[in-house]
Known about the structure:
The structure is a homodimer. Chain A is mainly alpha-helical. Chain A is about 75% helix and about 5% strand. Chain A has nine helices and two strands, in the order αααααααβααβ. The first copy, chain A, has a two-stranded antiparallel ribbon with strand order 1-2. In chain A, α1 (about 5-25) packs across α3 (about 40-50) and α6 (about 100-115) crosses α7. Chain A binds a DNA duplex through α3.
Amino acid sequence: xxxxxxxxxxxxxxxxxxxxxxxxxxxxxxxxxxxxxxxxxxxxxxxxxxxxxxxxxxxxxxxxxxxxxxxxxxxxxxxxxxxxxxxxxxxxxxxxxxxxxxxxxxxxxxxxxxxxxxxxxxxxxxxxxxxxxxxxxxxxxxxxxxxxxxxxxxxxxxxxxxxxxxxxxxxxxxxxxxxxxxxxxxxxxxxxxxxxxx
Amino acid sequence: xxxxxxxxxxxxxxxxxxxxxxxxxxxxxxxxxxxxxxxxxxxxxxxxxxxxxxxxxxxxxxxxxxxxxxxxxxxxxxxxxxxxxxxxxxxxxxxxxxxxxxxxxxxxxxxxxxxxxxxxxxxxxxxxxxxxxxxxxxxxxxxxxxxxxxxxxxxxxxxxxxxxxxxxxxxxxxxxxxxxxxxxxxxxxxxxxxxxxx
DNA sequence: GTGCGACTGGGACGGTTGTCCCACTTCGTC
DNA sequence: GACGAAGTGGGACAACCGTCCCAGTCGCAC
Lengths: 198, 198
Protein backbone atom coordinates (compact mmCIF):
# COMPACT_ATOMS: atom_id res chain seq x y z
CA UNK A 1 0.00 0.00 0.00
CA UNK A 2 1.65 3.17 -1.18
CA UNK A 3 0.55 6.29 0.64
CA UNK A 4 0.28 9.41 -1.47
CA UNK A 5 -0.86 12.83 -0.28
CA UNK A 6 -4.22 13.93 -1.64
CA UNK A 7 -2.77 16.78 -3.68
CA UNK A 8 -0.52 14.42 -5.64
CA UNK A 9 -3.36 12.04 -6.14
CA UNK A 10 -5.44 14.82 -7.64
CA UNK A 11 -2.72 15.52 -10.17
CA UNK A 12 -2.24 11.84 -10.95
CA UNK A 13 -5.97 11.36 -11.39
CA UNK A 14 -6.22 14.32 -13.73
CA UNK A 15 -3.39 12.94 -15.84
CA UNK A 16 -5.02 9.53 -15.89
CA UNK A 17 -8.36 11.09 -16.80
CA UNK A 18 -6.81 12.92 -19.74
CA UNK A 19 -5.32 9.68 -20.99
CA UNK A 20 -8.64 7.92 -20.72
CA UNK A 21 -10.53 10.73 -22.43
CA UNK A 22 -7.95 10.84 -25.20
CA UNK A 23 -7.98 7.12 -25.75
CA UNK A 24 -11.63 6.28 -25.30
CA UNK A 25 -13.64 9.50 -25.22
CA UNK A 26 -15.24 11.38 -22.37
CA UNK A 27 -18.21 9.04 -22.24
CA UNK A 28 -15.87 6.24 -21.22
CA UNK A 29 -14.09 8.34 -18.62
CA UNK A 30 -15.89 6.76 -15.68
CA UNK A 31 -14.56 6.92 -12.16
CA UNK A 32 -13.60 3.27 -12.42
CA UNK A 33 -11.78 3.67 -15.74
CA UNK A 34 -9.85 6.68 -14.45
CA UNK A 35 -8.92 4.95 -11.25
CA UNK A 36 -7.77 1.84 -13.12
CA UNK A 37 -5.63 4.00 -15.42
CA UNK A 38 -4.06 5.64 -12.39
CA UNK A 39 -3.63 2.30 -10.62
CA UNK A 40 -5.62 3.30 -7.57
CA UNK A 41 -8.66 2.05 -5.76
CA UNK A 42 -12.05 3.62 -6.16
CA UNK A 43 -11.99 5.03 -2.65
CA UNK A 44 -8.91 7.10 -3.42
CA UNK A 45 -10.90 8.88 -6.09
CA UNK A 46 -13.49 10.17 -3.69
CA UNK A 47 -10.86 10.91 -1.14
CA UNK A 48 -9.12 13.26 -3.57
CA UNK A 49 -12.24 14.62 -5.30
CA UNK A 50 -15.76 15.21 -4.06
CA UNK A 51 -17.24 14.05 -7.33
CA UNK A 52 -16.50 13.09 -10.88
CA UNK A 53 -17.77 16.50 -12.00
CA UNK A 54 -15.13 18.19 -9.87
CA UNK A 55 -12.45 16.07 -11.57
CA UNK A 56 -13.73 16.93 -15.02
CA UNK A 57 -13.83 20.63 -14.21
CA UNK A 58 -10.24 20.52 -13.01
CA UNK A 59 -9.29 18.51 -16.07
CA UNK A 60 -10.66 21.17 -18.40
CA UNK A 61 -9.00 23.97 -16.46
CA UNK A 62 -5.66 22.17 -16.38
CA UNK A 63 -5.65 21.25 -20.01
CA UNK A 64 -6.56 24.79 -21.08
CA UNK A 65 -3.77 26.13 -18.94
CA UNK A 66 -1.26 23.83 -20.60
CA UNK A 67 -2.36 24.97 -24.03
CA UNK A 68 -0.53 28.22 -23.27
CA UNK A 69 2.77 26.69 -24.29
CA UNK A 70 1.51 26.62 -27.83
CA UNK A 71 2.45 27.35 -31.34
CA UNK A 72 4.37 30.59 -31.16
CA UNK A 73 5.92 31.22 -34.57
CA UNK A 74 9.64 30.67 -34.89
CA UNK A 75 10.98 33.26 -37.20
CA UNK A 76 13.48 32.96 -40.00
CA UNK A 77 14.91 36.19 -41.44
CA UNK A 78 13.66 37.12 -44.86
CA UNK A 79 10.35 35.30 -44.59
CA UNK A 80 7.35 37.21 -45.75
CA UNK A 81 4.04 37.07 -43.89
CA UNK A 82 2.63 34.28 -46.01
CA UNK A 83 5.69 32.12 -45.31
CA UNK A 84 5.45 32.70 -41.59
CA UNK A 85 1.76 31.87 -41.46
CA UNK A 86 2.26 28.80 -43.58
CA UNK A 87 5.07 27.58 -41.37
CA UNK A 88 2.83 28.15 -38.36
CA UNK A 89 -0.01 26.14 -39.83
CA UNK A 90 2.27 23.32 -40.89
CA UNK A 91 3.79 23.17 -37.45
CA UNK A 92 0.35 22.99 -35.95
CA UNK A 93 -0.46 20.16 -38.33
CA UNK A 94 2.65 18.32 -37.15
CA UNK A 95 1.51 18.81 -33.60
CA UNK A 96 -1.94 17.47 -34.50
CA UNK A 97 -0.53 14.44 -36.28
CA UNK A 98 1.79 13.68 -33.40
CA UNK A 99 -1.06 13.45 -30.90
CA UNK A 100 -4.43 13.46 -32.63
CA UNK A 101 -6.19 12.00 -29.63
CA UNK A 102 -5.23 14.96 -27.52
CA UNK A 103 -6.86 17.44 -29.86
CA UNK A 104 -9.87 15.20 -30.16
CA UNK A 105 -10.09 15.15 -26.39
CA UNK A 106 -9.92 18.96 -26.30
CA UNK A 107 -12.83 19.17 -28.70
CA UNK A 108 -14.84 16.70 -26.68
CA UNK A 109 -14.15 18.55 -23.47
CA UNK A 110 -15.32 21.78 -25.05
CA UNK A 111 -18.54 20.19 -26.22
CA UNK A 112 -19.01 18.66 -22.81
CA UNK A 113 -18.55 22.02 -21.14
CA UNK A 114 -21.09 23.58 -23.49
CA UNK A 115 -23.75 21.19 -22.28
CA UNK A 116 -24.02 22.50 -18.74
CA UNK A 117 -24.49 26.12 -17.71
CA UNK A 118 -22.02 25.85 -14.83
CA UNK A 119 -19.27 24.58 -17.10
CA UNK A 120 -19.98 26.90 -20.01
CA UNK A 121 -17.58 29.59 -18.68
CA UNK A 122 -14.74 27.07 -18.90
CA UNK A 123 -15.29 26.80 -22.64
CA UNK A 124 -15.46 30.56 -22.94
CA UNK A 125 -12.17 30.91 -21.11
CA UNK A 126 -10.64 28.29 -23.38
CA UNK A 127 -11.56 30.21 -26.50
CA UNK A 128 -10.54 33.53 -25.04
CA UNK A 129 -7.15 32.00 -24.45
CA UNK A 130 -6.90 30.66 -27.96
CA UNK A 131 -7.79 34.09 -29.34
CA UNK A 132 -5.25 35.82 -27.14
CA UNK A 133 -2.54 33.41 -28.21
CA UNK A 134 -3.40 33.81 -31.87
CA UNK A 135 -3.43 37.58 -31.56
CA UNK A 136 -0.01 37.60 -30.00
CA UNK A 137 1.41 35.32 -32.70
CA UNK A 138 -0.10 37.40 -35.47
CA UNK A 139 1.38 40.59 -34.09
CA UNK A 140 4.82 39.03 -33.90
CA UNK A 141 4.46 37.70 -37.42
CA UNK A 142 3.38 41.03 -38.85
CA UNK A 143 6.16 42.87 -37.08
CA UNK A 144 8.74 40.43 -38.37
CA UNK A 145 7.47 40.68 -41.93
CA UNK A 146 7.30 44.46 -41.62
CA UNK A 147 3.67 44.69 -42.61
CA UNK A 148 0.54 45.78 -40.80
CA UNK A 149 -2.91 44.27 -40.67
CA UNK A 150 -5.55 46.28 -42.44
CA UNK A 151 -8.24 44.45 -40.51
CA UNK A 152 -8.25 44.66 -36.70
CA UNK A 153 -5.83 42.03 -35.47
CA UNK A 154 -8.41 40.55 -33.05
CA UNK A 155 -10.51 39.67 -36.04
CA UNK A 156 -7.64 38.06 -37.87
CA UNK A 157 -6.95 36.15 -34.67
CA UNK A 158 -10.52 34.88 -34.47
CA UNK A 159 -10.26 33.90 -38.08
CA UNK A 160 -7.08 32.01 -37.34
CA UNK A 161 -8.65 30.17 -34.42
CA UNK A 162 -11.77 29.33 -36.40
CA UNK A 163 -9.70 28.03 -39.21
CA UNK A 164 -7.48 25.94 -36.95
CA UNK A 165 -10.54 24.39 -35.34
CA UNK A 166 -12.02 23.58 -38.69
CA UNK A 167 -8.75 22.17 -39.95
CA UNK A 168 -8.47 20.00 -36.86
CA UNK A 169 -11.98 18.66 -37.21
CA UNK A 170 -11.51 17.96 -40.88
CA UNK A 171 -8.20 16.19 -40.46
CA UNK A 172 -9.53 14.12 -37.56
CA UNK A 173 -12.28 12.96 -39.87
CA UNK A 174 -10.39 12.14 -43.06
CA UNK A 175 -6.76 12.01 -41.89
CA UNK A 176 -5.77 13.32 -45.30
CA UNK A 177 -2.36 14.92 -44.75
CA UNK A 178 -1.92 16.21 -48.27
CA UNK A 179 -5.35 17.83 -48.32
CA UNK A 180 -4.79 19.41 -44.91
CA UNK A 181 -1.45 20.85 -45.98
CA UNK A 182 -2.88 22.23 -49.17
CA UNK A 183 -5.69 23.86 -47.26
CA UNK A 184 -3.26 25.22 -44.70
CA UNK A 185 -1.27 26.82 -47.51
CA UNK A 186 -4.42 28.31 -48.99
CA UNK A 187 -5.38 29.66 -45.58
CA UNK A 188 -1.95 31.21 -45.10
CA UNK A 189 -2.31 32.75 -48.52
CA UNK A 190 -5.76 34.12 -47.79
CA UNK A 191 -4.87 35.45 -44.35
CA UNK A 192 -1.67 37.09 -45.53
CA UNK A 193 -3.67 39.15 -47.97
CA UNK A 194 -5.32 40.89 -45.03
CA UNK A 195 -2.08 42.77 -44.38
CA UNK A 196 -0.06 45.15 -46.47
CA UNK A 197 3.36 46.77 -46.39
CA UNK A 198 3.49 49.57 -43.86
CA UNK B 1 -53.21 1.57 -28.19
CA UNK B 2 -52.35 3.03 -31.55
CA UNK B 3 -50.78 0.59 -33.99
CA UNK B 4 -48.06 1.99 -36.21
CA UNK B 5 -46.08 0.04 -38.80
CA UNK B 6 -42.43 -0.50 -37.91
CA UNK B 7 -41.15 1.67 -40.76
CA UNK B 8 -43.06 4.70 -39.49
CA UNK B 9 -41.89 4.04 -35.99
CA UNK B 10 -38.31 4.03 -37.16
CA UNK B 11 -38.78 7.47 -38.68
CA UNK B 12 -40.59 8.77 -35.61
CA UNK B 13 -37.87 7.45 -33.32
CA UNK B 14 -35.14 9.03 -35.40
CA UNK B 15 -36.92 12.38 -35.24
CA UNK B 16 -37.37 12.01 -31.51
CA UNK B 17 -33.73 11.03 -31.10
CA UNK B 18 -32.60 14.13 -32.97
CA UNK B 19 -34.71 16.29 -30.70
CA UNK B 20 -33.27 14.65 -27.61
CA UNK B 21 -29.68 14.93 -28.86
CA UNK B 22 -30.24 18.57 -29.77
CA UNK B 23 -31.80 19.43 -26.46
CA UNK B 24 -29.73 17.38 -24.05
CA UNK B 25 -26.71 16.00 -25.89
CA UNK B 26 -25.95 12.55 -27.17
CA UNK B 27 -24.99 11.26 -23.76
CA UNK B 28 -28.57 11.82 -22.62
CA UNK B 29 -30.06 10.18 -25.69
CA UNK B 30 -30.89 6.95 -23.89
CA UNK B 31 -33.43 4.49 -25.22
CA UNK B 32 -35.84 5.58 -22.52
CA UNK B 33 -35.41 9.30 -23.21
CA UNK B 34 -35.94 8.78 -26.94
CA UNK B 35 -38.96 6.60 -26.40
CA UNK B 36 -40.48 9.13 -24.00
CA UNK B 37 -39.89 11.93 -26.51
CA UNK B 38 -41.66 9.86 -29.16
CA UNK B 39 -44.44 8.89 -26.77
CA UNK B 40 -43.92 5.17 -27.14
CA UNK B 41 -43.16 2.27 -24.88
CA UNK B 42 -39.70 0.82 -24.54
CA UNK B 43 -40.68 -2.38 -26.32
CA UNK B 44 -41.56 -0.45 -29.46
CA UNK B 45 -37.99 0.73 -29.64
CA UNK B 46 -36.56 -2.74 -29.86
CA UNK B 47 -39.32 -3.80 -32.16
CA UNK B 48 -38.28 -1.11 -34.66
CA UNK B 49 -34.52 -1.24 -34.04
CA UNK B 50 -32.22 -4.06 -33.05
CA UNK B 51 -30.17 -1.80 -30.83
CA UNK B 52 -29.51 1.77 -29.82
CA UNK B 53 -26.40 1.76 -31.98
CA UNK B 54 -28.49 0.97 -35.02
CA UNK B 55 -30.71 3.97 -34.24
CA UNK B 56 -27.74 6.27 -33.84
CA UNK B 57 -26.23 5.11 -37.13
CA UNK B 58 -29.47 5.79 -38.93
CA UNK B 59 -29.75 9.14 -37.18
CA UNK B 60 -26.35 10.24 -38.46
CA UNK B 61 -27.09 9.05 -41.98
CA UNK B 62 -30.47 10.76 -42.03
CA UNK B 63 -29.21 14.02 -40.67
CA UNK B 64 -26.31 14.15 -43.13
CA UNK B 65 -28.72 13.48 -45.96
CA UNK B 66 -30.93 16.39 -44.91
CA UNK B 67 -27.98 18.73 -44.83
CA UNK B 68 -28.06 18.63 -48.63
CA UNK B 69 -30.76 21.29 -48.70
CA UNK B 70 -28.21 23.76 -47.47
CA UNK B 71 -26.94 27.24 -47.95
CA UNK B 72 -26.79 27.70 -51.70
CA UNK B 73 -26.00 31.35 -52.38
CA UNK B 74 -28.85 33.52 -53.60
CA UNK B 75 -27.45 35.90 -56.10
CA UNK B 76 -28.12 39.59 -56.58
CA UNK B 77 -26.92 41.19 -59.83
CA UNK B 78 -23.91 43.45 -59.50
CA UNK B 79 -22.50 41.80 -56.37
CA UNK B 80 -18.82 41.12 -56.43
CA UNK B 81 -17.34 37.91 -55.05
CA UNK B 82 -16.67 39.32 -51.61
CA UNK B 83 -20.30 40.44 -51.30
CA UNK B 84 -21.59 37.04 -52.33
CA UNK B 85 -19.35 35.21 -49.87
CA UNK B 86 -20.21 37.62 -47.11
CA UNK B 87 -23.91 37.19 -47.74
CA UNK B 88 -23.40 33.42 -47.66
CA UNK B 89 -21.59 33.51 -44.33
CA UNK B 90 -24.15 35.83 -42.81
CA UNK B 91 -26.98 33.63 -43.97
CA UNK B 92 -25.27 30.66 -42.43
CA UNK B 93 -24.95 32.62 -39.21
CA UNK B 94 -28.69 33.32 -39.27
CA UNK B 95 -29.28 29.64 -39.74
CA UNK B 96 -27.01 28.87 -36.81
CA UNK B 97 -28.68 31.42 -34.56
CA UNK B 98 -32.11 30.13 -35.49
CA UNK B 99 -31.30 26.59 -34.34
CA UNK B 100 -28.01 26.44 -32.47
CA UNK B 101 -28.86 23.13 -30.85
CA UNK B 102 -29.10 21.46 -34.22
CA UNK B 103 -25.58 22.45 -35.21
CA UNK B 104 -24.33 21.48 -31.81
CA UNK B 105 -25.98 18.10 -32.27
CA UNK B 106 -24.29 17.71 -35.66
CA UNK B 107 -20.90 18.36 -34.07
CA UNK B 108 -21.59 15.89 -31.30
CA UNK B 109 -22.70 13.24 -33.75
CA UNK B 110 -19.52 13.71 -35.75
CA UNK B 111 -17.38 13.33 -32.66
CA UNK B 112 -19.38 10.30 -31.65
CA UNK B 113 -18.86 8.72 -35.06
CA UNK B 114 -15.12 9.38 -34.83
CA UNK B 115 -14.92 7.27 -31.69
CA UNK B 116 -15.73 3.92 -33.27
CA UNK B 117 -14.10 2.44 -36.37
CA UNK B 118 -17.40 1.17 -37.75
CA UNK B 119 -18.98 4.60 -37.57
CA UNK B 120 -15.98 6.54 -38.79
CA UNK B 121 -17.04 6.28 -42.46
CA UNK B 122 -20.25 8.11 -41.58
CA UNK B 123 -18.22 11.12 -40.51
CA UNK B 124 -16.13 10.90 -43.64
CA UNK B 125 -19.23 10.89 -45.78
CA UNK B 126 -20.57 13.88 -43.86
CA UNK B 127 -17.49 15.94 -44.59
CA UNK B 128 -17.30 14.82 -48.19
CA UNK B 129 -20.81 16.11 -48.57
CA UNK B 130 -19.98 19.43 -46.94
CA UNK B 131 -17.01 19.85 -49.28
CA UNK B 132 -19.06 18.99 -52.35
CA UNK B 133 -21.72 21.48 -51.34
CA UNK B 134 -19.17 24.21 -50.69
CA UNK B 135 -17.45 23.54 -54.00
CA UNK B 136 -20.68 23.85 -55.88
CA UNK B 137 -21.57 27.11 -54.13
CA UNK B 138 -18.13 28.55 -54.77
CA UNK B 139 -18.32 27.76 -58.47
CA UNK B 140 -21.69 29.43 -58.76
CA UNK B 141 -20.41 32.44 -56.86
CA UNK B 142 -17.31 32.82 -59.00
CA UNK B 143 -19.30 32.44 -62.21
CA UNK B 144 -21.76 35.07 -61.08
CA UNK B 145 -19.02 37.51 -60.11
CA UNK B 146 -17.19 36.77 -63.37
CA UNK B 147 -13.95 35.83 -61.70
CA UNK B 148 -12.00 32.62 -61.45
CA UNK B 149 -10.25 30.99 -58.54
CA UNK B 150 -6.51 31.01 -58.75
CA UNK B 151 -6.33 28.21 -56.22
CA UNK B 152 -8.04 24.89 -57.03
CA UNK B 153 -11.67 25.28 -56.08
CA UNK B 154 -11.64 22.08 -53.98
CA UNK B 155 -9.10 23.73 -51.73
CA UNK B 156 -11.14 26.88 -51.41
CA UNK B 157 -14.10 24.65 -50.59
CA UNK B 158 -12.20 22.88 -47.83
CA UNK B 159 -11.14 26.24 -46.53
CA UNK B 160 -14.76 27.37 -46.54
CA UNK B 161 -15.88 24.29 -44.64
CA UNK B 162 -13.10 24.69 -42.11
CA UNK B 163 -14.04 28.34 -41.55
CA UNK B 164 -17.68 27.44 -41.13
CA UNK B 165 -16.92 24.73 -38.61
CA UNK B 166 -14.63 26.99 -36.66
CA UNK B 167 -17.13 29.82 -36.78
CA UNK B 168 -19.86 27.49 -35.53
CA UNK B 169 -17.76 26.23 -32.66
CA UNK B 170 -16.72 29.71 -31.66
CA UNK B 171 -20.23 31.12 -31.76
CA UNK B 172 -21.62 28.17 -29.82
CA UNK B 173 -19.08 28.96 -27.14
CA UNK B 174 -19.36 32.72 -26.79
CA UNK B 175 -22.66 33.49 -28.59
CA UNK B 176 -21.12 36.78 -29.63
CA UNK B 177 -23.11 37.80 -32.70
CA UNK B 178 -21.11 40.92 -33.46
CA UNK B 179 -17.79 39.11 -33.25
CA UNK B 180 -19.06 36.27 -35.42
CA UNK B 181 -20.27 38.70 -38.06
CA UNK B 182 -17.00 40.55 -38.06
CA UNK B 183 -15.10 37.31 -38.49
CA UNK B 184 -17.47 36.23 -41.23
CA UNK B 185 -16.76 39.47 -43.08
CA UNK B 186 -13.04 39.04 -42.63
CA UNK B 187 -13.29 35.47 -43.89
CA UNK B 188 -15.25 36.60 -46.95
CA UNK B 189 -12.62 39.23 -47.53
CA UNK B 190 -9.76 36.78 -47.23
CA UNK B 191 -11.38 34.11 -49.39
CA UNK B 192 -12.37 36.53 -52.11
CA UNK B 193 -8.74 37.44 -52.55
CA UNK B 194 -8.07 33.92 -53.77
CA UNK B 195 -9.83 34.76 -57.03
CA UNK B 196 -9.18 37.32 -59.70
CA UNK B 197 -10.95 38.73 -62.72
CA UNK B 198 -10.84 36.31 -65.58
C1' DG C 1 5.72 4.50 21.98
C1' DT C 2 1.47 6.45 21.86
C1' DG C 3 -2.13 8.83 19.74
C1' DC C 4 -4.35 11.00 16.08
C1' DG C 5 -5.22 12.31 11.74
C1' DA C 6 -4.24 11.13 6.97
C1' DC C 7 -4.81 7.66 3.79
C1' DT C 8 -6.35 2.93 1.89
C1' DG C 9 -9.08 -1.25 0.40
C1' DG C 10 -13.13 -3.63 -0.42
C1' DG C 11 -17.57 -4.06 -0.43
C1' DA C 12 -22.15 -2.19 -0.73
C1' DC C 13 -25.86 1.15 -2.03
C1' DG C 14 -29.54 2.89 -5.08
C1' DG C 15 -30.17 4.45 -9.60
C1' DT C 16 -29.78 4.09 -14.63
C1' DT C 17 -28.63 1.80 -18.68
C1' DG C 18 -29.50 -1.46 -22.94
C1' DT C 19 -31.83 -5.38 -23.89
C1' DC C 20 -35.06 -9.10 -23.54
C1' DC C 21 -39.30 -11.82 -22.66
C1' DC C 22 -44.00 -12.95 -22.74
C1' DA C 23 -48.77 -12.42 -22.46
C1' DC C 24 -51.82 -9.66 -24.84
C1' DT C 25 -54.44 -7.00 -28.53
C1' DT C 26 -55.34 -5.59 -33.03
C1' DC C 27 -55.44 -6.07 -38.03
C1' DG C 28 -55.79 -8.08 -42.62
C1' DT C 29 -56.87 -12.29 -45.00
C1' DC C 30 -59.26 -16.23 -46.08
C1' DG D 1 -65.61 -15.71 -37.63
C1' DA D 2 -61.12 -18.05 -37.33
C1' DC D 3 -56.26 -17.40 -37.66
C1' DG D 4 -51.59 -16.00 -38.06
C1' DA D 5 -48.77 -12.18 -38.27
C1' DA D 6 -47.80 -7.63 -36.73
C1' DG D 7 -47.55 -4.59 -33.11
C1' DT D 8 -47.91 -3.39 -27.92
C1' DG D 9 -47.28 -3.04 -22.80
C1' DG D 10 -45.10 -3.84 -18.63
C1' DG D 11 -42.06 -5.92 -16.08
C1' DA D 12 -37.63 -8.13 -15.53
C1' DC D 13 -32.64 -8.86 -16.18
C1' DA D 14 -27.64 -8.22 -15.66
C1' DA D 15 -24.31 -4.80 -16.14
C1' DC D 16 -22.68 -0.58 -15.08
C1' DC D 17 -22.70 3.93 -13.04
C1' DG D 18 -21.37 7.55 -9.13
C1' DT D 19 -21.07 7.63 -4.51
C1' DC D 20 -20.64 6.19 0.23
C1' DC D 21 -19.25 3.65 4.41
C1' DC D 22 -16.22 1.57 7.51
C1' DA D 23 -12.77 -1.14 9.38
C1' DG D 24 -8.16 -1.02 9.00
C1' DT D 25 -3.23 0.76 8.42
C1' DC D 26 0.32 3.84 8.01
C1' DG D 27 3.23 8.18 9.08
C1' DC D 28 4.31 11.81 11.98
C1' DA D 29 4.31 14.96 16.01
C1' DC D 30 4.72 14.91 20.78
